[in-house]
Amino acid sequence: MPGAKASSRRLDRRDFLKGSAAALAAAYGLRPDWALADVPLQFDGSNFKLAAPEPNPKAGGVLRYGITMRPPHFDVHQSGTINSLASQAVMFDNLIRRDPRDSGKTIIPDLAHSWDISKDGTTYTFMLRKGVLFHDGAELTADDIKATFDRIAKPPQGISIPRSVLFKSVSEITTPDKYTVQFKLSEARPPNFIMSAIASGWNVIVRKKTLEDNNYNLRKVEIYPGTGPFKSVKRVENEIWVFEANKDYWNKPLPYLAGIEFYHAVPFSTELGSSILSGRTDYIRITDPVTVRKAKEMPGFKTAQFNQSVIQGVWLNHKKAPLDDAKVRRALHLSFDRPALIDVVKDVTPMQVGGFIYPFSEFATPKDDLFKRLGYQSDTTAAVKEAKALMASAGHKDGLKAPLDFLVRDVPSFKLWAQAIQAMLQEALGVQCNLRTVVESVWFDDVASGHFDLAIGAVVSTLLDPSDYFNAWYRTGGPQNYSSWSSKEFDALLDQIDREVDPAKRLTLIHQTEAIMEAEIPVLPVAWERINDVYRDYVKGHNPTDYFGVYDVVREDTFWLDKA
Question: What is the pLDDT at residue 152?
Answer without folding.
Answer: 97
